[in-house]
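Example 3.
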Amino acid sequence: MTEVTDAPNPRADFGRRLRQLRRDRGWTLSEVAERSGLAISTISKAERGVISLTYDRLSQLARGLEVDLAAFFNAEGQSFEPGSFAVARKGEFKRQETVNYVYEMLFPDMWNKAMTPMMGSLKARELVDFEDFVRHPGQEFLVVMEGVVTVFVEGRAPVRLEAGDSIYFDSAVGHLYASDGERDARILVVCAPGPGA
Amino acid sequence: MTEVTDAPNPRADFGRRLRQLRRDRGWTLSEVAERSGLAISTISKAERGVISLTYDRLSQLARGLEVDLAAFFNAEGQSFEPGSFAVARKGEFKRQETVNYVYEMLFPDMWNKAMTPMMGSLKARELVDFEDFVRHPGQEFLVVMEGVVTVFVEGRAPVRLEAGDSIYFDSAVGHLYASDGERDARILVVCAPGPGA
DNA sequence: CAAGGATTTTTCCAATAGGAAAAAATGTGT
DNA sequence: ACACATTTTTTCCTATTGGAAAAATCCTTG
């Protein structure tokens, strides 16, 4: 016995979205049924929130409607000694310089760490040389500690980050940081080798 | 008798992702069960691809894991799309609470990241319960953003860290953080799975 | 407005999901 | 190695889903 609830049923929303999706395409139930391999009745019920589709069917349906599964929801839219540890005191870092940045590796004498944390300084209004995108395997995480930083990711619009903001990306994609404010910026970068490292 | 199919079952992928998501948080099945309201067995089966969850359950599960539903799907295949990136704005984090800390996972809807960055707050002079050392595989990196923090590493003398200081250690060793100052402390923690993860 | 085709909703039943509890496996400390 | 606690997997059973076909609704046209 299906209750007549107009409470914000989770599936009701989904159903509406589904129907919308179908009608946007001007398709009928049977058309979608054919494309997806589901039964007409199933789709009908799903659209009205009578039933709650299983992952399998959702998956099929997505293919049938030619949308990414996510579209349905977008609702809201290591010789590191085991057991060891190390402390890095502010200011006691080992300095390194590259063309683009000045940074200090935090635990230089531990090797095979799963992560490589670095503190970096970006001089205010440093020239950004677009020829020098940095690329390397693995993933990278950056937090802005002070100042404002613009991150250039190859093929994407620049991202402006303020203190407290962070970004996570695939290091294999060309990237570049630059201070964006009047002051020097201070960043923390943590690199990790990719899954297959 | 479950067939031993290693065929690219659509749900198998999903299941793996699910398990990953749960383990990233260090949660047990029953923990997720409680948070999501689903039965333990259901989650277990879903993770192993034995069953195909319905939309309703998926929805609940997403809430329980504190991820956007879309996060389950975005990566139809791989995790952390090669070449992708994500930005976390200060204050736009997803809150999580444990017995000892309040922290916000920074990129909750990307899974299989090589690193798991979190921002945490430690209430001033919170009682430290030494019975509750935290232990999990992998390595951990902590930076103090604000305040003063004492890190207790099992079997070692407590380490006092001030803003800008950081510590890197093996997460398998019992560890515990506590704010040590008058003010609340703010920390950034990055976890990485160990070599054999 | 009646007839006929197209589309959607219902009905009925087999297939599958989901939960409670038992069983197995996996970890702890002693 | 042992018992003990914790976590995961199985088992067993009920509730729900999903499909085929029948019934109802909605066009369109004469």
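Chain B touches chain A through 64 residues (CB under 8 Å). Chain B has four helices and ten strands.
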